[in-house]
């Protein structure tokens, strides 16, 4: 891909920052737009132009897009907690769908030709399919999933009517950290399983709660597809090439499932520490198994995960959390002064 200029909304967040790093590593110019509500300024390199702003500020969004031309917009800015969306459904509809519509409209008005959208496997709800493909029926199980689907539909019409080519990338469980140690996962509160298990092993939190052991799976615990965040970032670059000509929808995952107990055992292998845990009741709405069928992405782009092994994923997350016990707030020791 020739050197290009991209706008990344939510580029200071977990996935967004790894995509920014991948774009920069590939030689592209990047501008990050983020309100820092959940992102971290420290995750954006000093060499990358950073604009602190909110998508609700339509005048600011217009002024940023007017400073083009842009070779594409990659959109990560969103609320993303399923449980929270069940408590505040309309907040999620407004933040994710409403502001997503406004951004797509602004991109059309400013002549943007390519748009990559951070979508989700939450579109598929409680499916029993052993492998979820792009053709699996969409039945969102939460307002969060519904809000993402609404933006996917808006992008379909933006292509048909205005020629805005888009890639909707339906993530499964993003995990791990930049193998070079530049970036990692830092959420408040943390809700993702792998960092929670690592922190339990390190004694940084109380014993882990394991929600249910009576699912129809080999060990009774839920099975999920974990995709390394660096592999996920590379999928965005692969999609950008495809959407020069047409819009696409891709599932992004490893295609292999790991149970909650598999994750605990992996963390124990990698850290050499015992993970304290206790059994808790099932959480309402947790499917027994969610595993991606990512064959379409692989066949059409040549993309393939480099960090597909669960221990590899856990190891990168573990190194990040060891080096950054307070996340991006960690201040590493300075070099001693010469005397």
From TrEMBL:
One of its GO terms (molecular function) is UDP-glucose 4-epimerase activity. Its cofactor is NAD(+). InterPro entries: Epimerase_deHydtase (IPR001509), NAD(P)-bd_dom_sf (IPR036291), UDP_G4E (IPR005886). Pfam families: Epimerase (PF01370). Its EC number is 5.1.3.2. The keyword NAD applies. The keyword Isomerase applies. Keywords: Carbohydrate metabolism, Isomerase, NAD. Residues 7-253 form the NAD-dependent epimerase/dehydratase domain. Belongs to the NAD(P)-dependent epimerase/dehydratase family. This is UDP-glucose 4-epimerase. The gene is galE.
